[in-house]
Specification:
Helix content is about 55%, strand content about 5%.
Length: about 140
C-alpha cells in the first residue's frame, strides 16, 4: 500500500468525522492528521478526480466527502490512489502471475491477497470513524 493511499485513508476519515456540510481545507486536514500539506494537496486532487471528494474554491471553500462514509470502501480508496492493479499485482516479479502462470510466491501469496482484498472491500470509512471515536472515548476515560 502506497504512502498516498495511507494519507488518503487518513484524510477521508478526518472528513468523515466532520459534521455534514462542513468544509475542511487542506491545511486543517494536514495539521490534524500530521500529513505534509503539499503532498496532501496532490492526494486530495486525486480523490476528487476519483469522485470520492467534492472541492469548493474560494473563501470558505474546502473539501467534503462526495458520498456517505458507509458507501466508501477502503478498496475504493486504494484503487483510486494506486489503480486497479495496486493490490492485484505480483509482489515478487514485474509480470502478471496467475494460476496458469504462477510466480514462486503465488501459492502462498494468493490466499493472503484474497483476504486483504476482502478486508478492504468489507470495511468502510464509517467503520474507521466509529473506531476512531471509540478510541477517543477510551483515551478520555484513561485520562480521568
Amino acid at each position: 500500500m502506497s504512502r498516498s493511499s495511507l494519507y488518503a485513508i487518513r484524510a477521508l476519515t478526518y472528513l468523515a468525522c466532520q459534521a455534514p456540510g462542513k468544509l475542511s481545507g487542506t491545511r486543517d486536514i494536514a495539521r490534524h492528521e500530521g500529513i505534509p500539506a503539499a503532498f496532501l494537496g496532490k492526494v486530495l486532487q486525486q480523490l476528487r478526480r476519483g469522485r470520492l471528494l467534492r472541492a469548493y474554491r474560494g473563501t470558505g471553500g474546502g473539501y467534503e466527502l462526495a458520498l456517505p462514509p458507509e458507501k466508501i470502501t477502503l478498496l475504493a480508496v486504494l484503487r483510486c490512489m494506486d489503480g486497479a492493479s495496486g493490490l492485484d499485482s505480483c509482489v515478487l516479479e514485474e509480470r502478471d502471475c496467475s494460476y496458469n502462470n504462477p510466480c514462486a510466491l503465488h501459492n502462498s501469496w494468493g490466499p493472503v491477497q484474497a483476504r486483504l482484498l476482502e478486508f478492504f472491500e468489507s470495511n468502510t470509512l464509517a467503520e474507521l470513524v466509529a473506531a476512531r471515536q471509540s478510541e477517543a472515548r477510551r483515551s478520555a476515560l484513561h485520562r480521568e
